[in-house]
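Quick one:
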Amino acid sequence: DPVLWWKFDDDSSTDTVQGVPLTLYNGAFVAKGALHFPTSTTNRPYAIASNLTVAVTWESGEHTLATWISLASLEVPGGACPMAVQNSVSGHFDGFVWQERVHHQWMAGSENYRRSGPADNGGNAESVVGYPVHMVITYGARGVCIYRNGVAYCPCYDVPFFWQDATSMGSEVLFGTRGIHNGQTFGTFTGSVEEAAVYDYELSPRQGNVSL
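Output:
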């Protein structure tokens, strides 16, 4: 079971496992069972769950991110991130990042690409707009693995290290941005997130295919 799970049912922005609320900024809103990030020419809409009592940086390093993502356009800027976890103390982050290094390709974003794998991970160019796509990233004994709609998106790959901060201090879940540092957000996502979960272990390939 996930340690955090946002379903956005009944237009609620509160996690259903521990009751962790999101704080919404710059026009981000919840409606019709999804968290929405409208186009903005001024401020980047985003949402954040902070002051967590559960660590999103794990002593074992294993973790999994899962979400349903709907892109507003294939031309959403590179580096956009619908969901990420970060630790504001250590500076680590992991998340779903859109076409930062390869046109129309998803990647596992991380600080300085430390867990992002090859520049071209081999994943097919995304073509779906305005309809949710199920994305999962697992981190653990098999390295980093990405799934899209129940199918391996690219080959799993090894990385130098995983997070090993055992405390919840500084742990945050971000939506609509891949990082926040000194009040500045990074990446501009336009679209919606229909569901999102964080696990404190590596899902198996079968679990990754059916999560959420």
